[in-house]
Amino acid sequence: MIFNRLLSGDLPRSRVLMVVLIAILAGLVLTPFAFPGAKALNVAAKICIFIVLVASFDLLLGYTGIVSFAHTMFFGIGAYGVAIALTRIGPSWTGVAVGVTAALLLSLGLSLVIGLFSLRVKAMFYAMITLAVATAFQTLASQLSEFTGGEDGLTFKVPELLSPGFSLSEQPFLGVSLDGRLISFYLLVAVTVVLFLLMLRIVNSPFGRVLQAIRENAFRAEALGYQTVVYRTWSNVLSAAFATLAGALLALWLRYNGPDTSLSFEIMIDILLMVVIGGMGTLYGSVIGATLFIIVQNYLQDLMKFASDGMSKVPLLRDLLHPDRWLLWLGILFILSIYRFPTGIVGKLRTKARGHS
Amino acid sequence: MTVPLLQLEGVHTHIGAYHILHGVDLQVERGELTVLLGRNGAGKTTTLRTIMGLWPASSGYVRFDGEALNALTTPEIARRGISYVPENMGIFGELTVRENMLLAARGAKRIEDMDAARLDWIFGLFPALKRFWQHPAGLLSGGQKQMLAVARSIIEPRQLLLIDEPSKGLAPAIIQNMIVAFRELKQTDTTILLVEQNFNFARQLGDKVAVMDGGRIVHAGTMAELAGDEGLQQRLLGLSLAAHQ
């Protein structure tokens, strides 16, 4: 009952999916203890940030059917908000609050303006407008170097509690030092869970139901009495707000932000892939998509090196599996996964579960 | 004399470069079921979509309960109390039957917020909907989808229902169920404007009839008059009812 309420009545509806989701959550929570080392912790933190970012994009694309390329802009605004505020005000919680609030206000304003002025046009034109706005913003961030650090970005200090130098206890716990990095990580996990549950509440509310109706057929939704432009604009604003918060989390974790870190078009492509692989229109898809994508992105090279060494006596295979060719294999893997799971992994698992019931 | 619930006066509608409606004049009286007949491309669906503001009239007036609808948006028109069931059923296939019904009951957040007696009445009209309540609407059969589309339009009391070819593509047994349901709906004094090509279906339900051709109303009168006059049927529709029985 509590579980059902926590997930807003939107249960995974597939036993396999539920097991995978629990495994991901457990894996993230236990990362510092189960997988020691900076790389594993960074990968887990990135997964958390991208779960929020991808889910917020799914709110727009999967639930409302709006194709936007400005999502990384809002992600960047969140990251720059925290970075600029902490650089100017200094490493304090006030700095974090000012940065997040200012970033949220800017994102809300921008998304509202883009939504109101652009959501009346055809989907393709809207996508083009958002692409133009995002590119302009990226250029602006690079040019305003006095403010944003330009291409070099900004390196800053975070509040003491979150800094690596802070220690909660002299004694390590289960071999792991209880420092600011660990606190940052668990704060990240907790905020991710809260934001995800909040998005789950939104998509399962009457508001979310109207968004899904609009995605399927905007005219029909209008004929039922719903002002689709208003709903689409709200979806745009909410999605931007969550992306901004994801950006703020990224900046707090990295203690650095630059145009390539949060504003690049590559990130936009990655988000799109994560949504498609996980399954559009299912927030759980963002958890699966982000986790799978980031793990493959970070560990495929290691796996290929292992495979290439194993095949050292087979010339062609050894060369094909050389770690330098990881992008080729990454591409092949994603083409195959989209071919195999056209409705995403979550869609496939749910269809299979429905077939069994 | 009472004002008709719906009145179209010299309505012209253009879709892009095409001039579809050429001055439609139509009256729908309160509590009656008016059937709009005509061959394919006569302008029947365009008339319904023009009333809903989906393809706004380029000139002329659409009045509902005395109020001109021309300047209103589709959602505003819907909120005046007009329900529209489009030709292709107009359901949301990826949402469940329950979610489709909740969407139509605009004030309801949950099923508990709906009028339970009305829901029971709808389940009585269309029992399949209760059976497939939690199923995605896209998985329903054609007849069940049509039932859902009609059920959705009556989940809350509406002043006027616009229904576009409800019998299209349905098996005879399902059509018979639809006739029973519409007859029961008529008992509730709901005003209905029904677009149909199936004259036998229309004849069993209609109080009034309007026949369209070339974007105009070419005949308006009672259904009894048209059903009883083979010559008129031949002239207006190219058929005689006897041939269809």
How would you describe the overall organization of this protein?
The complex is a heterodimer of chains A (357) and B (245). Chain A has 357 residues and is mainly α. Chain A is 75% helix and 1% strand. A two-stranded antiparallel sheet of chain A has the order 1-2. In chain A, α3 (38-61) packs across α13 (265-278) and α5 (93-118) runs antiparallel to α11. Chain B is of the alpha/beta class. Chain B contains 10 helices and 10 strands. The A-B interface holds A 205-206, 209-210, 212-213, 216-217, 219-228, 281 and B 52, 54, 73-75, 78-79, 84, 86, 90, 92-95, 99, 102-104, 106, 108-109, 152.
Low-confidence stretches of chain A: none
Number of strands of chain B: 10
Would you tell me the overall average pLDDT of chain B?
Answer: 90
Number of helical runs of chain A?
Answer: 17
Please name the two chains that share the biggest interface, counting residues whose Cβ lies under 8 Å from a Cβ on the partner chain.
Answer: A-B, 19 and 22 residues
Major sheet of chain B: order of its strands?
Answer: 6-7-8-3-9-10
Please state the overall shape of chain B, judged from the principal axes of the Cα atoms: globular
Order of helices and strands of chain A: HHHHHHHEHHHHEHHHHHH
| Count of distinct strands of chain A | 2
Mean pLDDT of chain A: 92
- Taking pLDDT < 50 over at least 5 consecutive residues as the criterion, the unreliable ranges of chain B are none
Beta-strand percentage range of chain A: under 5%
Helical amount among residues of chain A, as a percent range?
A: over 70%
Order of helices and strands of chain B: EEEHEEHEHHHHEHEHEEHH
Give the DSSP E fraction of chain B (strand runs of 2 or more residues). 15-25%
Identify the strand order in the major beta sheet of chain A.
Answer: 1-2
> Helix/strand-derived class of chain B?
alpha/beta
The helix tally of chain B amounts to 10
